[in-house]
Amino acid sequence: MAKLPPDMTELSSYIDKDLKLRFKLACTAKQKTMSEVITDLIEEWLEENENPSPVKKEKGEA
């Protein structure tokens, strides 16, 4: 097993075998590692979901 840099950790998940194969092929076609794409996707998701902006109430609403 390769030694990870000190600021990295492993993430494990279960997905459908066909989905993993499609993902791996698409990453290879783009010359990106699956880890790079997963990191980008998680960062994007966090930007949208980690600190959601409060919903403004209209006048007259409780």
Give the % helix: 40-55%
Distance N to C terminus: 57 Å
Which class of secondary structure composition applies to the elements?
Answer: mainly alpha
Sheet with most strands = none
Strand content: under 5%
Rg for CA atoms = 18 Å
Q: Indicate the overall shape.
A: elongated
Record field, number of beta strands:
0
> What is the element string, with H for helices and E for strands?
HH
Poorly predicted regions are: none
Average residue pLDDT: 89
Short description:
By secondary structure, the protein is mainly α. The protein is built from two helices and no strands. The longest helix is centred in the last third of the chain and has 16 residues, at 34-49.
Could you please describe the fold and organization of this structure?
With 62 residues, the chain is mainly α. Helices cover 47% and strands 0% of the residues. It contains two helices and no strands. The longest helix is centred in the C-terminal third of the chain and has 16 residues, at 34-49. The model has no long low-confidence stretch (mean pLDDT 89).
Write the layout of secondary structure elements.
Blueprint: H1 17-29, H2 34-49
Structural features:
elongated; single chain; 62 residues; 2 helices; mainly alpha
